[in-house]
User: Which sequence fits this backbone?
């Protein structure tokens, strides 16, 4: 069954590739019948749509705001012109050199994005665009002395005309769109969706935030440069005003109009908004007002964009059998693809808990926020294969202690070990993704699943560290990537079955109840087979029956599967009823620790937490 399931996945990939090939052929056939001006318009739209897709990767998928796309387009267009006029590297160099340079610059922007977010990140990318504009205008003869370049004709078995470049740009757009779709449906795309929603959760899920952000900026910059090269050839000339701040705002408008994060939306938005001036050209100066009115109307009526609006309408009005997913099949035995993912996800930092009976050891931990001591003299041991409850009033320091375990809070003193391995100490901070790949999973007070994902895709995020392929291999949907996707889907289905998730595995996250979200989040933790599970207030907002069912499952995981479970919770009844050991905190310190019955009778606990005197 495993092989037949994998063959089905590979068959879907071949069908998608076939559709892309047919689309490329159809594009050439249609363009062949257009006149020179129409070809000019089509080439401009195709190149600009590629630029919109590059920006959509950052803003729409990863939530990283950038205004630098025209700078990378300029690098591509001017770079190609300079290579053709001043070197003998030919058309290959004209494409490769600007793209590589742009990707390097994009990678540096990604490093900057580690410290800046939102508006401040946008301002920094605007600075890059301003620098690029200054170079284009004031850069001297190498950059056309402020006037730009006329693109030299390229000959490959004959001169490539502007009409030919129109067809080439359209074909490249089809390929880029197909690769973008592949990335969106891959581990990288799912990871970017979670990164967009909550960076801390993404890191604690095992995603290397540095690589993810740097990779996103680098890939976007490369696509921007590719768009610039094609734009230059399609236009025939390049000049500074083609890559100004106005272009950056226009690109943003295209993806907002079509639908943020939507691949079809970026292409349709670009096409519609670039054609509007052509359609309303007879109106003269009034056409600008009408264009603005159309854009404003779409933003007001369909703030999510035109394509998501159409998709949602189709789901409401079309028969269910046309929009629902196929019935899933899970092999009776774990497939080799799934086994390989689990092995790779842990090979960088696997814990050897067999050598220690202690799963987590907090040794004299202290956490400070400036002059405020949030946690002090915190020494607690979580035994292997047990369920350990951590309770205390609000502000007791529970979440601060858990944050220190994942490297989110720096230690002022003390150390933290997991399975006998030193994880955190003063001067040594292991980032959340290193803690996760070491075999420690975590849930949060407010469940976070990722923007625009299905249940299955959200759970698959828990396998990110074990998935192969960067942007190139993922975009091309190589055999290794397909095998990993099949194995990840299998493991995610098994994890959802384990947490007794009864609803459709292909259901959008946005349609789930809070109780279902809790189970999906737990499944995302369990899918990577962690040895230690940390849960922060998992019953918050749940009905009584759902809370009891969740703790039944946690106790089963601890006792039957020999996992270590640390639960931070306010529900005293559940903690004392299910835990093997209980620790009580107040004002940053441990005031009681031991068996539930002993702790419940402790005088300090009754005074500080239960309100007794």
Assistant:
């Amino acid at each position: 069954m495993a092989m037949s399931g994998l063959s089905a996945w590979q068959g879907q990939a071949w069908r998608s590739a076939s559709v892309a090939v047919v689309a490329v052929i159809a594009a050439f056939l249609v363009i062949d019948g257009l006149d020179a001006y129409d070809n000019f318009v089509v080439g401009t739209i195709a190149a600009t749509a590629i630029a919109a897709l590059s920006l959509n990767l950052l803003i729409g998928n990863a939530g990283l705001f950038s205004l630098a796309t025209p700078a990378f387009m300029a690098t591509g267009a001017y770079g190609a012109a300079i290579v053709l006029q001043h070197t003998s590297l030919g058309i290959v160099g004209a494409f490769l050199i600007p793209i590589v340079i742009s990707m390097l610059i994009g990678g540096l922007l990604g490093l900057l994005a580690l410290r800046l977010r939102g508006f401040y990140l946008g301002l920094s990318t605007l600075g890059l665009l301003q620098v690029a504009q200054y170079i284009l205008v004031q850069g001297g003869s190498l950059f056309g002395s402020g006037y730009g370049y006329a693109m030299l004709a390229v000959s490959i078995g004959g001169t490539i005309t502007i009409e030919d470049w129109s067809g080439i740009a359209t074909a490249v757009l089809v390929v880029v769109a197909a690769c973008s779709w592949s990335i969106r449906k891959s581990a990288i795309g799912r990871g970017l969706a979670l990164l967009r929603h909550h960076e801390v959760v993404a890191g604690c899920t095992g995603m290397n935030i540095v690589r993810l952000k740097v990779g996103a900026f680098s890939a976007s910059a490369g696509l921007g440069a590719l768009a610039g090269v094609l734009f230059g050839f399609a236009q025939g000339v390049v000049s500074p005003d083609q890559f100004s701040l106005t272009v950056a705002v226009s690109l943003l408008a295209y993806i907002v109009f079509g639908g943020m994060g939507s691949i079809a939306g970026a292409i349709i938005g670009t096409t519609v908004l670039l054609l509007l001036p052509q359609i309303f050209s007879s109106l003269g100066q009034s056409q600008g007002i009408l264009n603005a009115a159309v854009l404003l109307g779409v933003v007001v009526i369909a703030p999510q964009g035109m394509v998501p609006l159409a998709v949602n309408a189709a789901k409401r009005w079309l028969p269910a059998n046309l929009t629902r997913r196929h019935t899933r099949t899970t092999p009776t035995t774990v497939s080799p693809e799934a086994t390989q993912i689990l092995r790779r996800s842990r090979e960088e930092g696997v814990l050897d808990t067999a050598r220690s009976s202690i799963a987590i050891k907090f040794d004299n931990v202290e956490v400070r926020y400036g002059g405020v001591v949030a946690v002090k003299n915190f020494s607690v041991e979580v035994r292997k294969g047990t369920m350990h409850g951590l309770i205390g009033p609000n502000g007791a320091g529970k979440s601060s202690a858990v944050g220190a375990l994942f490297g989110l809070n720096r230690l002022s003193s003390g150390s933290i070990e997991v399975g006998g391995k030193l994880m955190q100490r003063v001067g040594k901070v292991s980032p959340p993704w290193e803690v996760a790949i070491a075999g420690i999973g975590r849930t949060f007070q407010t469940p976070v699943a990722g923007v625009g994902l299905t249940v299955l895709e959200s759970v698959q995020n828990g396998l990110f560290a074990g998935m192969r392929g960067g942007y190139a291999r993922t975009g091309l949907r190589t055999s290794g990537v397909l095998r990993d996707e099949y194995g990840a889907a299998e493991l995610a289905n098994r994890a959802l079955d384990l947490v007794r998730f009864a609803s459709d595995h292909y259901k959008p996250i946005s349609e789930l109840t809070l109780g279902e979200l809790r189970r999906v989040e737990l499944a995302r933790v369990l899918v990577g087979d962690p040895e230690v599970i940390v849960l922060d207030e998992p019953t918050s907002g749940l009905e009584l029956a759902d809370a009891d069912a969740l703790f039944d499952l946690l106790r089963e995981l601890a006792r039957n599967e020999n996992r270590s479970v640390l639960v931070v919770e306010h529900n005293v009844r559940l903690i004392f009823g299910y835990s093997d050991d209980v620790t009580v905190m107040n004002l940053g310190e441990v005031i009681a620790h031991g068996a539930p019955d002993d702790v419940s009778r402790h005088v300090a606990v009754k005074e500080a937490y239960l309100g007794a005197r």
Summary: The mean pLDDT is 83. Residues 4 and 331 are 10 Å apart (CA to CA). The chain is about 60% helix and 15% strand. The chain has three domains: 29-242, 336-348+451-530, 352-438+532-613.
